[in-house]
Amino acid sequence: MAVRQIKNDIFYVGAIDWDRRLFDELIPLPDGTSYNSYLIKGSEKIALIDTVDPTKENELIKNLKDLNVSNIDYIVCNHAEQDHSGAIPKILELFSEAKVVTNQKCREQLMELLLVPEDKFITIKDEDTLSLGNKTLQFFITPWTHWPETMFTYLKEDNILFPCDFFGSHLATSDLFVRDREKVYFSAKRYYAEIMMPFRNVNSKYIRKVKEIGPAIIAASHGPLYDKPDFILNAYEEWSSTIKNEVIIVYVSMHNSTLKMVEFLTESLMKKNITVKVFKLTNSDIGEIAMALVDAATIVIATPTVLTGAHPAAVYATFLVNALKPKLKFASIVGSYGWGGKMIEQLTGMLSNLKVELIEPVLIKGYPKEKDFTLLSNLANEIERKHKELNIS
Ligand code: FEO
Fold first, then answer.
1. CA triplet 381, 309, 337: central angle to 5 degrees?
2. pLDDT tens column, 276-328
3. 88 alpha carbon to ligand 1 midpoint, in Å?
4. Quick one: which of 43, 90, 300, 338 is 20 to 30 A from 120 by CA?
């Protein structure tokens, strides 16, 4: 893939992964991704900011050859996850004089994960600087902009921030900078939902920090670069704070009883002008569910009983919702059983990470009957009332 120049002596040397469709064997990548790596040529020293996934290390090496790079002084590692650090051993092999510049926690991770030798590191602390001659790098340690060791690198003279995963988007595109705003907004929101949402409380302070720094360019490590940073800063602020008059219903149904309940509840909520997003768990993309969770005030989990508990698809979804820690305010459960069970206790016990109020679940026997539809109407009324109390209706 072609090297791209960002500014004088600053180059994109990463790789676009057009074909990847799954990350961490968990997260769907409908639009591929990229692993962004940057080369900065100072008047005295050369630094590489992050590397690429090991599957793409040959592309990184080719890009460095195309730029006639014969030595690298510093490999800055903002994050130890292998999609950014995985090519460090290969780069160290090719450029044996290079030192890995990172913080203490990241250094420990790189030694454990990639077996990087201890003598290969320069360890920095928060706000430390590193001179490249006519260019200066400054480091900001930012735990939980994905992992506990994550950090940002700031190129002072050119006013470029390299925040690694923070503000990233899983999007394979030939655009170096954001050009298709709608497309990038969607990909960045999906990325936020899947990767950053669990840390949204702590991340609010990093959004403020980036605003204080005021970079002209944000060069994240996935997706296109932001040459108008307000676009992504405003989006992150909105996603981490705004709650909408929306209900997300995730459901699984074996013999249509639960499906009938979902259809009735959906229609009841729609009549109240509440936005409803319905996901059939057996064929939904979990990234789409995560994105819906960014905005929704309420989740309803709908499931039949299997043996004595919820359907395993509902258990899996409930586990993910709890792990993602969305800013949901309310939750409920609806479903149908054949001969009893404990799925309400089971599912509510799995939502311990969420600060949600449980709205009276509707658990019925068999196919829904008139009295059951009344219970579902009551549930819709209660959701409407709760949303009105939040002033979001
Ligand atoms: Fe893109 Fe947390 O790695």
1. 60
2. 999 999 999 999 999 999 999 999 999 999 998 999 999 999 999 999 999 99
3. 15
4. 43
